[in-house]
Structure formats: C-alpha cells, structure tokens
Amino acid sequence: MNEATVVDARLDKLEIINSHRFRFGCASVGLVAFLLAAAGPVMAQQGERARDLGVPFDGSPGPLNAITDVSGVRVAHTTLIRGEGELRVGEGPVRTGVTVIFPRWDDPSDPVFSGWFALNGNGEMTGTTWIEESGFLEGPIAITNTHSVGVVRDTIIGWQAERRSSFQPWSLPVVAETYDGSLNDINGFHVRPEHVYAALENAASGPVDEGNVGGGTGMRCLGFKCGIGTSSRIVELGGETYTVGVLVQANFGGRRQLTIAGVPVGREIMRDEARLPEPPQTPDIDTNRGSIIIVVATDTPLLSHQLKRIARRASLGVARTGGTAGNGSGDIFVAFSTANANAARARPFAELTMLSNSQITPVFDATVEATEEAIINALIAAETMVGRDGNRSEALDHDRLRAILERYNRLVQ
Predict the structure, then answer these.
(1) Contact 371, 174 (CB under 8 A)
(2) Which of 33, 161, 254, 328 is deepest in the core (most CB within 10 A)?
(3) Stated pTM of the model
C-alpha cells in the first residue's frame, strides 16, 4: 500500500512513529484502517478499475497502469474522513486530504526538466513561475483542497529544510488544488503539517490507491463521486522503451458531459432515470465549476519546452471524457521527465539527451490516452460519499456503465 491514511476520530493524539507506522495514543495503524473501513459516510463498490469492467482504451499500459510505472516516481496519500451531519466550521464533517508525488524519490534534491500549462486558470498551482523561468521542477509535487495549499506548501519547505534536500537555499514547492467544499468543511483547515509529513514520509512505488483518497477524498467529477486516478502507457522510440504515467485529481464537469469510450454515458443515465416512475432528484452539477489537476511523468528524454507541449496534450484527454474547461474551472497540468539526471547540477555545461521533435508524437498520444483512462479510473474507484449537511455524491454504478457500453457495442468481454 502506498496510502498513508490518517483518520481523525476524536482520539487524543496523533504520533508519527517513523516513516511507515502511525500511532493514535496507544492504538496501532491497524485501528486506523478499521476506522476508515467502518466509516459510515463512505459506501463501497468492489475494487475494480475501468479495464476490469470492460471499458476499451487505446494504447498499451505499463505493468501497474499507474504513474509509478515511471522508474523512480513515488506516490502517497493522507486521507482525512471524520464526522457526519450539519456543517460546523472548524469541526467538520471532514472529507479531504493530501496527495504527494515524488519525481525522484532516491534524490529529491535533483531537479527534473518540467513544463506546465493552464487550460483554464481559475485555480492554483504554486511554483510554476520558476518552472516557466528555469525549465526545472524541484522536489515533490502535492495536491490538496483549495484552502489548504498554504499549509501544504509551508510543510514541504520545512520537510526539505530538515533534510537539506532543497536544490537551492530556498524552496519553491509545486502545490495544486481543487475545491471539495461541497462535501468537506473546507474553511475548517483540517489538513495539518502532520498529515503532509505522513504523506511525504510514506511515498512508495507500486500500485497507487484511487478514488476517495488523499487530495481527491472529497472530489466529484462529471456528475459522480470522483477523486484520484492514474494510468500509464508504454512507448517504443528508436528501439528503446519508455513510459508515460499520469495521475489526476478530478473535480470537473457535469453528468450530461460524461463520455466513456466515446459513449455519452451521462446522457444515457439521465435518459434512463427520466423513464422511471419516480425519477431520482439528482440535479446536474454546474459544468462551469470544478477543476482538474494533472501530473504527467515520463522517462523519455525531453526538455522543458517539449514537456510544456506534453502538458498541453493532457487537455485532449480531458476532452475525451467530456470536459470543456468552463470559466469557473481550474484545469492546470504539469509534466516532468526523469531523464537527464544531474543536469541542473552540472558546471559549467550539461550534456543532455533530447528526443527529436520529429519523434515526439507517440509521447503526445500516450499522454492523451493515459489522461483519459486516469480520469475514468478515478470515477470507477470512487465510492458514494455523504459529506457536510448530508450532501451526497453518488458513485458511478458499474453494472449500469457496462450495460450502456454494451448497448453501444463498446464493451470488451
């Protein structure tokens, strides 16, 4: 597991024991897992991914079909779920968290070439001014809720200072956000330094937890419960094999926009529900609001101007799922390459390897494909959640999705 789960259940004390274990007072991490599993506000579906349901996608995924298929990349989540009922600012209910991605876990002080792009800028991603200026991303990336960007950024700086892992004497962390205030007490500022530390210390390779985890805990997209999703693609270039991995925190769009494998799934669900004797009262979410943060990782030797092009292509993956980047949406994407290690440290010159622009199109394709699948994986993994004031976000029903895809002859048996 690469999820550092912290559930504040009104226990007296949170103590970080080491990078892999936690104790609440005298309770063990097993109690943490039990509390999360027993939490009433979350209703589970089976732990399936989109391909398990027969959803067809283009391209060849990596072994994990996750951003961690890119060697050296590690991910962790801290998930905060507490309370039910009426919103009481500062108390809850709490449905939030933080997700951390390390481009170079083995040497986080070694910057990676990077580029970023805002499809619509009604959101925040700190540290992008320096990415634009220098072409490098330094240290970990974090994603959280809109009103917790500051504490996450400051905690990363403190973590780097303690370990002397900053490339420069100062630190300019990349921290991004989406808004979870429909389900979470967002003005209660429940993400705290110890929660960020837990994620930083527990980053791991291997499978990545999806859905209602980390920064994606309280997020909704395309009319259903959503959150964190990931996917990857293998690319053959010049006789070499490279990997493109994507992680999303999805919180955008309305139900009528939802498109899966080219099928207007959202409209079909709404049409089916309208035929019921008592149609459910599920008004479509305002498509002008919401956001998506996308992180694209690759080991392909790309420089910053090329990575900016890669970040732009993530937009096409969003469009495949129905997103249109409304005025109220913060659709902000960052891409990095783990190739060319120590390039930022070289003095006075750095010897670099760069993929020719004439050969970059397969990497564009892989980015679009993995972004689309990561968003759908977030929808498939997410579970129905009840948040503040009884606000409820329904999960996408797996059986209903399969039936609609089969109706359009798009289901892979």
Answers:
(1) no
(2) 254
(3) 0.90
Instruction: Find out whether 81 and 42 touch, Cβ atoms under 8 Å.
Output: yes
Q: Is 106 tagged catalytic?
A: no
For residue range 241-294, what is the model confidence (pLDDT) as tens digits? 999 999 999 999 999 999 999 999 999 999 988 887 766 665 555 556 689 999
Name the residue type at position 279.
P
**Three-class secondary structure assignment of 286-300:** CCCEEEEEEEEEECC
* pLDDT band at residue 35 using 50, 70 and 90 as cut-offs: very low
Which residue out of 182, 331, 337, 393 is catalytically annotated? 331
Residues 6+ apart with CB under 8 A from 233: 59, 60, 61, 62, 243, 244, 365, 366, 367, 369, 370
At what angle are helices 398-407 and 265-274 packed, to 10 degrees?
100
Instruction: Please report which confidence band the pLDDT of residue 113 belongs to, taking 50, 70 and 90 as the band edges.
Output: very high
52 is catalytic: no
**Phi, psi values for residue 260, rounded to 5°:** -130, 125
Catalytic residue among 232, 291, 304, 315: 291
Q: Is 291 a catalytic residue?
A: yes
